[in-house]
């Protein structure tokens, strides 16, 4: 299996602060508006480091000690879901359908894309499996059967190397 062929060191962002900065930059470049609540939700997802559910995000926003106007108004489920919709639509986060949770995209500077995920059932970490061949093969196979794919979600559940070594 080949790894993602990225030569730009700015393509992958692994720390939460750097990730939010990369998304802010991408929004400016694309003419998108990263509102305070969108930035807050994005920051919470990035800081969490593992898949996080919408209601857990809502709880964190509600319990935030910095209850300014943006946070207070953001404490309603529709507001959080609208922020998630924006972040998903612009490729800044991914939704893991099988666990109904969200993770930061490791390369927010690229267009929206399909990425298979490996999800550990013990520690709940999710890893983007950056292999364009898998995505292309699924798309190609579907089209050969006369199926016109609209979206792809591939999630593989199992035990990560770290958990397997401990267990």
Question: What does this protein structure show overall?
Answer:
With 167 residues, this protein is α+β, with helices and mostly antiparallel strands. The protein has 2 domains: 8-109, Winged helix-like DNA-binding domain superfamily/Winged helix DNA-binding domain (Arc Repressor Mutant, subunit A, Orthogonal Bundle); 114-167, 2-Layer Sandwich (Dna Ligase, domain 1). Helices cover 45% and strands 11% of the residues. The chain has helices spanning 16-30, 36-48, 54-63, 69-73, 77-89, 132-144, 161-166; strands spanning 93-96, 101-104, 117-120, 126-128, 155-158. Strand 3 and strand 4 form a beta hairpin. Helix 3 crosses helix 5. The longest helix has 15 residues, at 16-30. The relative contact order is 0.15.
What is the element string, with H for helices and E for strands? Answer: HHHHHEEEEHEH
Derived from helix and strand composition plus strand pairing, the structural class reads alpha+beta
Oligomer: single chain
CATH class of the largest domain: Mainly Alpha
Question: In angstroms, what is the radius of gyration?
Answer: 17 Å
CATH superfamily of the largest domain: Winged helix-like DNA-binding domain superfamily/Winged helix DNA-binding domain
- Report on the biggest sheet: 3 strands, mixed
Keywords:
three-stranded mixed β-sheet, 167 residues, 2 domains, alpha+beta, disordered N terminus, Arc Repressor Mutant, subunit A, Dna Ligase, domain 1, 7 helices
């Amino acid at each position: 299996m080949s790894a993602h062929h990225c030569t730009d060191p700015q393509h992958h962002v692994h720390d939460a602060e750097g990730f939010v900065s990369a998304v802010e930059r991408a929004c400016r470049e694309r003419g998108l508006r990263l509102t305070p609540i969108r930035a807050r939700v994005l920051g919470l997802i990035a800081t969490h480091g593992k898949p996080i559910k919408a209601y857990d995000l809502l709880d964190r926003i509600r319990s935030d000690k910095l209850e300014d106007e943006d946070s207070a108004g953001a404490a309603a489920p529709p507001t959080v879901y609208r922020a998630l919709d924006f972040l998903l639509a612009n490729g800044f986060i991914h939704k893991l359908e099988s666990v109904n949770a969200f993770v930061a995209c490791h390369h927010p500077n690229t267009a929206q894309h399909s990425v298979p995920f490996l999800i550990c059932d013990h520690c709940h970490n999710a890893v983007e499996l950056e292999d364009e061949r898998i995505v292309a093969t699924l798309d190609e196979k579907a089209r050969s059967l006369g199926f016109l794919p609209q979206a792809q979600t591939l999630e593989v559940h199992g035990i990560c190397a770290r958990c397997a070594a401990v267990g």
